[in-house]
Amino acid sequence: MFTKILLPIDHTDENSWKKALPLALEQAKFYGAELHAISVIPEIIQLPNLPAGYGSGAKDFVRDKIAAILSANNAADVPVHIEEGSVYRELLKFAHKEGADLIVMASAEGDFPNYEIGPNLARVVRNAHCTVMVVRN
């Protein structure tokens, strides 16, 4: 049913992957699907008062952090994609461009009846062209 699965990971928030990563790996194995990890960093704008090359290592830094998380969870072979910009926009663009048919995304922590559906998750769920699996934390 699924051939390409996308897993957003925020390297600064363990809740973004702690439960979602094992579930995404399980789904990928069950369906024989490709699993891709993605992280979105804020757009780095070159302002006149900043030195040339400011922020040039940000993507590599985040890629290394995500790779370490994947490696520690027996998923070292999962490709990592780093995008710049608005989280939900970049996730949706990437999912559409790459033909993802499932996005596995963690919710923020919360208890019944106030499960935390943040703005990025809400926008991805509302606007995704594919199935979105929300993993409750």
Structure description:
By secondary structure, the chain is α/β, with parallel strands linked by helices. The protein has 4 helices and 5 strands; from the N terminus they run βαβαβαβαβ. A 5-stranded parallel beta sheet has the order 3-2-1-4-5, with helices on both faces.
Label this structure with key terms.
single chain; 137 residues; alpha/beta; five-stranded parallel sheet; 4 helices; 5 strands; 20% strand; globular
Structural class: alpha/beta
Number of helices: 4
- The rough form would be described as globular
Number of strands: 5
What is the average per-residue confidence, as pLDDT, rounded to a whole number? 91
Task: Tell me roughly what share of residues is in helical segments.
Answer: 25-40%
Biggest sheet overview: 5 strands, parallel
Question: Per DSSP, what share of the residues sits in E-state strands of 2 or more residues?
Answer: 15-25%
State Rg.
15 Å
Distance between the termini: 25 Å
As residue ranges, the low-confidence spans are none
Brief overview, please?
By secondary structure, the protein is of the alpha/beta class.
How are the SSEs ordered, and which strands pair?
Layout: E1 4-8, H1 20-31, E2 34-41, H2 58-72, E3 80-84, H3 87-98, E4 102-106, H4 119-127, E5 131-135
Parallel strand pairs: 1-2, 1-4, 2-3, 4-5
